[in-house]
């Protein structure tokens, strides 16, 4: 079996969340796409990888962590400590970006229920405010290399 066949058979063959945490995001959400561009710009070490929630990699990671594979209301961070959602995922990502973004990690002192209520409010209105695409678009080349989804190559 060639390397290409292995990657096709196992969408997680090239995914290593311990070395490169994976951010799963809504592939049609404009806010999510802007967030990914922001992360690529400020993740100077190139640590994070990205995959749409509905992609083979996204679906496999969701199943692996016993998370719902449909009706996505949160982006998900998969790292060495497991799966994280909503505000906790956002704060862990910010912590991984270094200063000044890592200062947001202090917000973990706010009760998760309060943080997640605010997160849910943004998530509920994200399409109304930021719009959405008809389909998940293939990212530009400088962003594409950071995707865990090999089907984009």
Structure description:
The protein is an alpha+beta fold. The chain has one domain (3-152). The protein has six helices and four strands, in the order H-E-H-E-H-E-E-H-H-H. The protein has a four-stranded mixed sheet with strand order 2-1-3-4, with helices on both faces. The longest helix has 19 residues, at 112-130. The protein is globular and about 40 Å long. The model has no long low-confidence stretch (mean pLDDT 84).
From the alpha-carbon coordinates, what is the Rg to the nearest angstrom? 15 Å
Largest sheet: 4 strands, mixed
Q: Unreliable runs, pLDDT <50, ≥5 residues?
A: none
Shape: globular
Oligomeric assembly: single chain
Q: Supply the number of structural domains.
A: 1
Key features of this structure:
153 residues, alpha+beta, single chain, 6 helices, 4-stranded mixed beta sheet
Secondary structure elements and their pairing?
Layout: H1 3-9, E1 22-25, H2 30-42, E2 49-52, H3 56-64, E3 76-79, E4 82-85, H4 86-96, H5 112-130, H6 141-144
Parallel strand pairs: 1-2
Antiparallel strand pairs: 1-3, 3-4
Give me a quick take on this structure.
With 153 residues, the chain is of the alpha+beta class.
